[in-house]
Amino acid sequence: MQFETFLMERNQTLFENGVEINLTESGVHPCAIEEILPAQEAQALLRLPLGYGWTDGRPDLRSAIASWYPEASAANVLVTNGSSEATMIALMAMIDPGDKVLFAVPNFMQVDGLGRALGMDIQRLPLLADRGWQVDPEALKAATGDSVKLIAVTNPGNPTGAVLSQRSREALLDAARRTEAWLLVDEIYRGGEIDGAETETFYGAYERVIVTSSLSKSFACPGLRLGWIVGPDVVVEEAAKRQDYTTIGSGILSQILGAAVMEPRNRERILARGRALLRENADIVESWVAKRNRWSWQRPAAGGMAFLRYDFEMPSEVLSNELREEQSVFVVAGSWFGIESHIRIGIGVKTEHLEEGLSRLDRFLARRGLA
């Protein structure tokens, strides 16, 4: 079994903690425990026995997660170590080596690399930049044929922050129904909308939809490493059997805090905190781009990231590396998503960090005559 290097994750691991300004994150600036639990409940954690707890997720946590998905129950939820484990065990449970998987790009590249390592036939479906990173229904129909086993998308998108239109949604659902394929939707940025209403979940739109998500992005709790699968009973049951071989279960402290985050009133308060920050920072980036004729973007609809396009000759990985080395600012290279002449910058950071990062990017460009 050969694993390709997961370029974005490997580079973040190597460099994100050694820079002054880290703009590679795509979530909201993290919450503190005191923003999640009342002081008395937080203090009670000091007396908590650190046992295994519920390896598939505490009942109150699974119920709280299910409440965010229409018609879902706790039985439709499996708690995982982040969305990465959720995606991994969902793929392992439902897809066999040799099965065809259609993967919409640009995207977080886990399904692509992991699927290939597991012997799956991964075929990429390019989203259309000139249509706001939407699905091309005709290309989708041609690509699915009659043999596709799973279609994988992210909504809202990564790295684009685009939300799939109703036309794109229907095209994906029609293709999945026609071929009886599973539709795997990473919804980790749902709840982090910048301008519009909350993104409609795909869960419940078709009986073979599998949703993955976590507390890492819109919920501003990446350190909890808590994610989930929401899907039909058979998916939850089969994925749980694989989790017995991977991590067995997530941490008891993360589950307690996660249940508090996902309690409906708390959930909406935490999401509102993030949306306010994202909206303010998106406006800052919009103003920055408007004053620089070598840069462009499509304002993201959701998520803590901006995907910026530039029109000069410099490989995006070179830009990322040299900006980090010279200015101690770290951005994501577009090539790590398979798209050149772009960088992804985090807009969920503290506003002063974003402003300083953009200022240092200006200095970097000016020294090369690219301002």
TrEMBL record:
Gene3D superfamilies: Aspartate Aminotransferase, domain 1, Type I PLP-dependent aspartate aminotransferase-like (Major domain). GO terms for molecular function: pyridoxal phosphate binding. Residues 50-361 form the Aminotransferase class I/classII large domain. SUPFAM superfamilies: PLP-dependent transferases. Signal peptide: none annotated. It comes from the Bacteria. InterPro entries: Aminotransferase_I/II_large, PyrdxlP-dep_Trfase, PyrdxlP-dep_Trfase_major, PyrdxlP-dep_Trfase_small. This is 8-amino-7-oxononanoate synthase. It comes from Microvirga ossetica.
